[in-house]
Specification:
It is built from 15 helices and 17 strands. With 486 residues, it is of the alpha/beta class. The protein has a 7-stranded mixed β-sheet, with helices on both faces. The protein has a 5-stranded mixed β-sheet with strand order 15-2-1-16-17, with no helix packed on it. Helix 2 packs antiparallel against helix 4, helix 7 runs parallel beside helix 8 and helix 9 runs parallel beside helix 10. It is globular and about 75 Å long.
């Protein structure tokens, strides 16, 4: 695995101090200026050309086409957030004008809007060296909200991180912003990460990675004299439930789609379906046979780096109380067990990061619901069913919506669209705060906090709350949405 010197405590402290110094000026930028900055970052990333793609390919083992798509997604995220910032209504401005004649007591003038939370630490992910890394979604959403960012590069792709960081730094300079708006630090040691989270001026953390590392950061942030929020995306097995009529009508199609999904990117997606549930029947047996056959025929490919490969090998070796349907060595691993065994061994429900999935056989619909109820929080849950299946399983749909942040119907969870409506999060241990997403424009709300102003003179109010509404925002005035001035 590539390596680079760990940042020293002094370097980490200096980066956070610079960010804190830059925070007031960056927060005060006009929306159009901040939007132009995000767009400039996208332009600078594109200007890196083949150097960025070739470096990322060398460090990640990912194919060129995948990285080209990921670069496009990274630039698209930045430009999408720029549009949100330019519109400005994301600040959720609310104005309740004074009612001096209200009886028995007058109502004061009360106004509320979201403001930047302060310097944010972002931890790059190993499986997306561009879209979830230095210039990825966490960085884009934190900058969009008006916060300086300190990125801790993932040690698996330091050179790629340096290139992306240089692009952001050039955008900072081109837009005339304070240098502390963005910094990059390196470090393979957990102490670097903990030192960054413990820095007194830091206000929030965005993380994508393992449950162990994410929980360590969460605990460190909570133990600070002044605790801060940590938005960690960590662990998910992304269960798939195949209902009886769908099995009968398109079992082979579902099996082929499942294999394509859990082997996509060598199984190194946080939304990889690692658990599949079905009711015992000839059709369920047939789908297991098809999945196993397709898995045995899968083409082997290198994993992201040695650390992940070795962890996956250890994880597969530790799986017990199952029947293996694909043999080792194999490019893809499939196992099967019954509901009673699954419920008796909770470790079978845990995420195994890589090309592995476990088929679980239930006796009937009631046992399917028991299995669903036993699951921890998930990023996604998927149902395959006919209209009749889904009607009969309405209570299962309700249950899965309690367990997962995104519930899919007749599809597969790999592939997360960057849209306004997307939610990429879920109950613990999928994330540390199920209320927020790390993908899509709603991600901006992680890095903002509400401030209420009562009986303030108009001249001292933020532009979002002034009577004239100089930013032209859609505001909630006395409970009614309007862009009108007061």
């Amino acid at each position: 695995m590539p390596s680079t010197p760990d940042a020293t405590p002094a370097e980490i402290s200096a980066a956070v101090t610079r960010a804190a110094a830059a925070a007031p000026a960056f927060a005060a930028l006009a929306p159009a200026t901040r939007a132009a900055f995000l767009e400039k970052i996208a332009d600078e990333l594109l200007a890196l050309g083949d150097a960025l793609l070739e470096t990322a390919q060398r460090e990640s083992n990912l194919p060129r086409a995948r990285l080209e798509g990921e670069r496009g997604r990274t630039m698209g995220q930045l430009r999408l957030f720029a549009a949100v910032v330019r519109d400005g209504s994301w600040v959720d401005a609310r104005v309740d004008p004074a009612l001096p004649d209200r009886k028995p007591l007058p109502r004061p003038d009360v106004r509320r809007a979201l403001q930047p939370i302060g310097p944010v630490a972002v931890f790059g992910a190993s499986n997306f060296p561009l879209a979830f890394s230095v210039a990825g979604g966490d960085t884009a959403s934190a900058l969009a909200a008006g916060n300086p960012v300190i990125v801790k590069a993932h040690p698996a792709h330091p050179a790629t991180s340096d290139l992306a960081a240089a692009a952001i730094t050039r955008a900072v300079a081109a837009c005339g912003l304070p240098a502390g708006v963005f910094s990059l630090v390196h470090g393979a040691s957990p102490e670097v990460s903990l030192a960054l989270v413990r820095a007194p001026q830091l206000a929030a953390v965005g993380f994508t990675g393992s449950a162990r590392a994410g929980r360590a950061l969460f605990d460190a942030a909570a133990a600070r004299p002044s605790p801060i929020p940590v938005f960690s995306e960590m662990s998910s097995a992304n269960p798939v439930f195949v209902l009886p009529a769908a099995l009968r009508e398109r079992g082979t199609q579902i099996a082929e789609g499942l294999v394509a999904s859990f082997t996509l990117g060598v199984g190194q997606f946080c939304t990889k379906p690692g658990l599949v549930f079905g009711i015992a029947s000839p059709e369920w047996t047939a789908i297991a046979d098809t999945v196993a056959t397709r898995a045995r025929a899968a083409t082997a490919a290198p994993m992201l780096h040695t650390g992940i490969s070795e962890s996956f090998t250890r994880g597969v070796a530790a799986v017990s109380n199952v029947e293996w349907l694909s043999t080792t060595p194999a490019a893809a691993h499939v196992a099967r067990t019954d509901a009673a065994t699954f419920l008796a061994h909770p470790e079978l429900a845990h995420e195994l990061f890589g090309p592995f999935t476990l088929l679980v056989t239930a006796r009937d619909a009631a046992e399917i619901r028991t299995l669903a109820a036993s699951l921890e929080g998930q990023l996604t849950a998927t149902l395959h069913g006919t209209p009749e299946d889904l009607t009969a399983a309405a209570d299962l749909v309700t249950l899965l919506a309690q367990r997962a942040g995104r519930v899919l119907c007749n599809g597969f969870p790999t592939g997360v669209e960057v849209t306004h409506a997307m939610h990429h999060g879920g109950p613990y241990p999928a994330t540390t705060d199920t209320r927020f997403t790390s993908v899509g424009t709603a991600a901006i709300f992680r890095f903002a906090r509400p401030v209420c102003y009562q009986n303030f003179p108009d001249s001292l109010l933020p532009d979002a709350l002034k009577n004239a509404n100089p930013l032209g925002l859609l505001r909630l005035v006395d409970g009614k949405p309007t862009r009108d001035a007061l």
